[in-house]
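Good morning C.,

I know you're traveling, so I'll keep this short. The sequence:
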Amino acid sequence: MEIDIDEAKIKIWIVENPTGMERGIATVKFGQMTISGFRILENDEAHKSAAPFWVAPPAYRTRKGKFQQIFWITDKELWQKLQTKILEAYNKLLEEKPDLKANLGEIPVIEEKDAGSYKTHY
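The tokens, ready to paste straight into the viewer:
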């Protein structure tokens, strides 16, 4: 199956009042296929990228507390394009909704509704 990242439709959920690195959740739709659970994370010293945010693929947390990836793209160029498209959608949302930004630059204000669900959906 050929995937055209430019045709992907992306929905972003903003997580309010974050306690960790997570700033948002993305769902990506490619035609009839929808993949939920891409996490938009604020960069920290442990992550190799110099970018302020990065995208983690859908994953679940093991009993030992580590994340086990459940989706991946083996083509690095395709994965980079998808990450870029997700971050562009995230930044566009922040530009359109300035009330979501915190006082610290581009970090959005995020608030969890309850465990596992998110209050704000765009």
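Safe travels,
E.
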